Amino acid sequence: MKKILxxxxxxxxxxxxxxxxxxxxxLMPIVLMLLAGITGSLRLRNxxxxxxxxxxxxxxRTYLETYGAALTFRxxxxxxxxxxxxxxxxxxGRAALIIxxxxxxxxxRGTQPVxxxxxxxxxxxxxxxxxNYAASLNSAFTEKNGLTQPxxxxxxxxxxxxxxxxxxxxxxxxxxxVYFGTGGLxxxxxxxxxxxxxxxxxxxxxxxxxxxxYASSLTAVQWILxxxxxxxxxxxxxxxxxxxxxxxVFEFRFxxxxxxxxxxxxxxxxxxxxxxxxxxxxxxxxxxxxxxVQMGSFLLSLLLSGYLIAxxxxxxxxxxISYFLPATHYIQIVRNSILRNASWGTSFxxxxxxxxxxxxxxLVNAMQMRKMQFKG
Amino acid sequence: xxxxxxxxxxxxxxxxxxxxxxxxxxxQLMLPPTIVLVIFxxxxxxxxxxxxxxxxxxxxxxxxxxxxxxxSRNVDFTVKQVYVSxxxxxxxxxxxxxxxxxxxxxxxxxxxxxxxxxxVQVVIDAVDANTAQIAQGYLEMALADxxxxxxxxxxxGVRHEIALASASHPAGPPGAPEVQSAYIYNPGLVTSWYxxxxxxxxxxxxxxxxxxxxxxxxxxxxxxxxxxxxxxxQTGEMLMAKTSPVFVLMMVVLFLSLxxxxxxxxxxxxxxxxxxxxxxxLSALAGTGIGVMIATVSKSQQxxxxxxxxxxxxxxxxxxxxxxxxxxPDLFQKLSYFDPLRYMVTIxxxxxxxxAPWSALWPNLLALTLFSIVLFGISAWRFRKT
Lengths: 376, 386
Description:
The complex is a heterodimer of chains A (about 375) and B (about 375).
Chain A: H1 2-17, H2 19-39, E1 47-53, H3 58-69, E2 73-76, H4 84-89, E3 95-99, H5 103-109, E4 114-120, H6 124-144, E5 162-169, H7 176-207, H8 210-215, H9 220-249, H10 259-283, H11 286-304, H12 316-323, H13 326-338, H14 344-372
Parallel strand pairs in A: 1-2, 1-3
Antiparallel strand pairs in A: 3-4
Chain B: H1 2-21, H2 23-43, E1 51-57, H3 62-72, E2 77-83, H4 86-94, E3 100-104, H5 108-113, E4 118-125, H6 129-150, E5 178-184, H7 191-222, H8 224-230, H9 235-265, H10 273-297, H11 301-318, H12 330-335, H13 340-352, H14 358-385
Parallel strand pairs in B: 1-2, 1-3
Antiparallel strand pairs in B: 3-4
Helix pairs in contact in B: 1-9, 2-7, 2-9, 7-9, 7-10, 7-11, 7-13, 9-10, 10-11, 10-13, 10-14, 13-14
């Protein structure tokens, strides 16, 4: 134990000397979490909609108002001579609404006028959503303007047989900040500890001081734990800061039973640092180690941990990877604790997986080191 | 002039030799466009499907079973389990076995047969707000389907067949205006195109900066920069020699990623390839500039790498490569104008997916040019100072 602590102390002295590193290690997660949480939003607002009203009647303007009143769309003027195709190709708007001549007349007469909506489908996902919004707005307009066929009293049949009463649990305001905030927290806490772990290990190889570790009386386990300890502490500081940021910006709530979250955080940080150290041991070169961390922890966690895309939407061929990512399980635990206010019961499986993965990373590390160490 | 070229050539030779020995770097450059692009393209599909639906059937009648049947016919839902008590369903939702559940009231069939409207409660796990909203939408459509089956169509009035463009939406009453949505530039609604073009641009920028900073700071770390400064070569020549192999490699990466995009994802190239190349070259230049700048500020590779990690993600996130800029808060939208990557992304999408007119593209190209001149200029100046 003493040896572990003194190894950690040595790391701390090294770490303290590098002021820039200090600052980055603490500041970076906060800035990144803020950015990732805010820009990750998938909700559409203020989509600029170009309007081509060839009817210009009170009714067509009412129709436009229906779109303008929705938060999704923002009506946008356009140069009179520009065709909608050209305007869309020049990024002047993301969709163009074309109301034909005789819109009002056709509507009042009861023949169905056709309004065209051209959507820039470069971002196909938003495009689909926009198409659906427009269809909803369209039926809202119809309903408001009294075209709904009156139900004949004789048949007694209701317009709607079954209606829905909806309850949205855990996030009734449907805010996506909480979702991306919690995911961002998980992402930050895997990137930076792994990065620091990789850098410090690879540096030992580059400067050749790893030989001293081999030759010393430290066992592989002691060396690894000593090295990891400091970065886990740094990670805990990052966790506290990110959590405060979460409370301030991302609508986090204190879980009533934080024990599972705290234990999981420590485990997760160890997993991150161990992963980084594996990379450092394997490559022995800072630049390559960073690349490894970037691919292994950042990219994979970003894509496959359920931060951006729900895991069930990942193609089945690569979905299995996500079960081997600590981030998958940790983000689950964070969301359970902060959003669902759930405790050990719900988080049991992810917790076990997280523990298993951490231990596995540790074993790989120990094996890498043991192979090299001189037998004492 | 000739001496200059000779010196540059000698330095270039040295850099190329060093690069040749550095296998890791070449792999580092070639891996992202192939593997990352493919993973990104396939994995990033935010379409919601296979929602796990639980049903609490308190009615136990033919009608309620028909209702459940009609829901399970829907491809977006899989009915996981029919529960007897609401409590069980709540537990299942809590332990993440379900995404949403319905409660069919005990008087369901009685109310329906009486010709009244029956209310069905649905509880959705809304932690993922986006999915919850979509689930809500799906459910409403499924319900509309069901209703249109059980509710007899009123026999009064003319009933036109109305075909809505989006078939998933229930038909409106006769005579209602119809919106016909035309999805241009990507009528097949291929999700991967958006991400592939975005990631392509990100790779150009980030890899250039990563590699350039690593190469430049290495000289400093090993102390060989002193030797370089002692040679008659001028700083400009040194910088050129250092960056030109990176630049060439980056251009290879650019076309490699375009080819992967075309072959694997069927990415269309509708616009001018020259413009694409020019934009790629400019952003490689800008990326290299950022990399060298970072190298001049930092004392060790460790610091340099961390700094690139600090600089690159904000650039990526603000550029609109992975999420549309319009969705961001206003302040962030304004900030994105200071992001050179934004222009690269715009041009790449303009050239591949859209046939953007030149009048819309040149401001982006101009901005990108300015950025790369400024960034590269600053980096040359900083390089001299060290």
